[in-house]
Design brief:
Chain A: It holds the Pfam family CBS. Chain A: Residues 256-314, 315-375 form the CBS domain. The structure holds two protein chains of two kinds. By secondary structure, chain A is α/β, with parallel strands linked by helices. Helices cover 39% and strands 21% of the residues of chain A. A six-stranded mixed beta sheet of chain A has the order 6-7-8-3-9-10, with helices on both faces. Chain A has a four-stranded antiparallel beta sheet with strand order 2-1-4-5, covered by helices on one side. In chain A, strands 11-12-13 form a three-stranded mixed beta sheet. In chain A, β4 and β5 (65-66) form a beta hairpin. Mean pLDDT of chain A is 82; it is low at 375-401. By secondary structure, chain B is an all-alpha fold. In chain B, 81% of the residues lie in helices and 0% in strands. Chain B is built from eight helices and no strands. Chain B is elongated. The relative contact order of chain B is 0.15. The model of chain B has no long low-confidence stretch (mean pLDDT 86). Classes of the chains: A alpha/beta, B mainly alpha.
Amino acid sequence: MLLSMEHLRKEYPNGKVAVDDFNLQVDRGEFIAFIGTSGSGKTTTMRMINRMLDQTSGTIKIDGEDISKMDPVKLRRSIGYVIQNIGLMPHMTIQENIEIVPKLLGWSKEKRNTQAHKMIELAQLPDDMLQRYPGELSGGQQQRIGVVRALAADQDIILMDEPFGALDPITRESLQSLVKRLQEDLGKTFIFVTHDMDEALRLATRVVIMSRGKQVQVDTPENILRHPANQFVTNLIGEERLIRAQPNILTVSQIMLDHPASIRPEETLKDAIDRMHDRRVDTLLVVNDQNVLQGFVDLNDINRLTDVTTPIKSFTNHDVFYVQADSLIGDTVDRILKQGVKNVPVVDKDKRLVGIVTRTALVDIVYDALKGAPESDHKPASPINADIHATATKEGGDSQQ
Amino acid sequence: MMHFFATYGTQLLSKTGQHLYISAAALFLGVIVAVPLGVLLTRMKHGANFIISLAGVLQTIPAMALLAMMIPIFGIGSTPAIVALFIYSLLPILRNTYLGMQGVSPTVKDAAEGMGMTWWQRMTQAEIPLAAPVIMSGIRLSATYVIAWATLASYIGAGGLGDFIFNGLNLYRSDLILGGSIPVILLALIVDYLLGKVETLVSPRQLR
């Protein structure tokens, strides 16, 4: 465990409790986002990690070592620090800014110089920018420097306090990509304070939602979207975002139809035609005794045959496209739509048939996600299924293929 | 004019030298006391205003009275003059140092501390360089004051260009009065110009 925070409490002399019983275990390489309204204690908590603030009680350990027993100056040099208003030294060149912590640590001039060139490359900025002053750079460029400066002395943990809050949306997005890339490529651990939910969900491996000094929910972005702990979290995420996030949190099993029309290989052509007629569909899924998907039969193939007693297995089409029940819609929707098929069988881990997804149901989800708002008569989750049932039956009946 | 230089040329040079020495010494003392004091004041939660007001009160003592007050303590000569002028130089430097340090953006201070600079490193590498232009303008202001007031130092036997002026006043000799005043004015202007250059030199490069 890289960073361990236990029962942290911060109480100010005036009796205001800023952080109350905060617990968090952070593994190497994690990207933790602290999110909450202002005054929720997120920045206070972050600032206790590099002892810019001291906790009233509780312990913080880095690699098992209690930081309250460490020299705060040494501790801070080992932790990257990026703040909202950039905090570059205006009287120093970009190179001098990047070299601040390496210089404090007593690195040689050559080593610092090499590192500065490496860092500017990491920031995806031209090398000659090293000799410029912060005032000559745009806000986005300055914050790129701010980010790589925090990595210049090879710090393991990087603290970021709303680093992109003051940037315009496009610049913010490119900075987010930079940070995400650094986290993934360099395996750095980020503690990131933000009030931007999109940012938290996009970047974090785990999100810590805080309110009035307490942790409300600590989980992965997917789980938070799937199961918001309470109304506060739901409000913080926002109804619209929950709907837009559906492709990424709904699984195939949540939108599929149960009991698709199926047939066994040993049944005859007559059985197949009867069943198609009963269910008003033009294809049947072929499954064996264990309900394992074998393929499908299509009405067009059947028409050309005369002998109605022929077993189904002799004209089963084995070339069947299917999806796993527990896969996310967001991951499968493209594949399904590109296949150009109307219906896709859904199977479990053992390839047993569990349901069917219609193209119509998928299109509905994609449409909602793009539009970002629910239709008046259906809410997220279960009511979607009701709509699908209606459209699916209709489509099955009209189908000619 | 030529006659004046022929008669008083050497004297003028030595008096200018004295004048410059008294002013520079007073200013130097003022800088080494007021700048660190101003820096320390920014660390104090209370008392900063009190100390700045105190320096303000010292500033209001009439120059002649202050010089006279120095005689019982330091006798006559350049020492009491330097001490008195030093006291005058304090306020502008102290106040500008304090304001300059206060004016350093909290973000920069936070970043400097958060990156692991010690207090001394924060002061010498971040805050003082950033406050330098404001501090320098305080020093410039003090320098002009001190050069002007050093004229009065002649009154307590410190020498300097004031000697010409006081002699001129006593003897009703306008050439001596002008011969003392004009060099003082020139001196003040030149020093101000040079310190202005220094001010630009210590200012962070800012291109916007």
